[in-house]
Amino acid sequence: MKRILLALLACFILASCGHRSLSGTYVPKGGGVGNGIVIEKMEFSGDEVTLTMLEQKIRANYKIDAKQLLIIVNGQQEVFDIDGDGCLDGGGMWGKFYKS
Fold first, then answer.
1. What are the per-10-residue average pLDDT scores of the chain (100 residues)?
2. What is the SS3 assignment for the chain?
3. I need a labelling partner for 63 at 20 to 30 A (CA). Which of 10, 15, 36, 78 fits?
4. Whose CA is closest to 43, among 3, 81, 88, 76?
5. pTM
6. Residue 23 CA from chain centroid, whole number
7. Distance CA 29, CA 76 (A)
């Protein structure tokens, strides 16, 4: 199970030109894992994000490129769109995260 989670996280990207930052904690709408959501929360501090998944924490770097959050873990990348309200939208795979 850990390998699957790490492989999924390895699907996160973090490379961009423009640099903005996020801060605080983002949580999925409707709760965590019980609703089929794998990432329970994202905690941003400086240029790092801590992802809590199934009671495990994984730290990664992130960058902002235009209106996208780019996270990379173990050479793999994932892109979240940043909507007009500042929410992070990972689409059907990850769902939408709101600042708490």
1. 46 40 89 64 95 91 94 88 92 88
2. CHHHHHHHHCCCCCCCCCCCCCCEEEEECCCCHHHCCCEEEEEEECCEEEEEECCEEEEEEEEEECCEEEEEECCEEEEEEECCCCCEECHHHHCEEEEC
3. 36
4. 88
5. 0.73
6. 12
7. 25
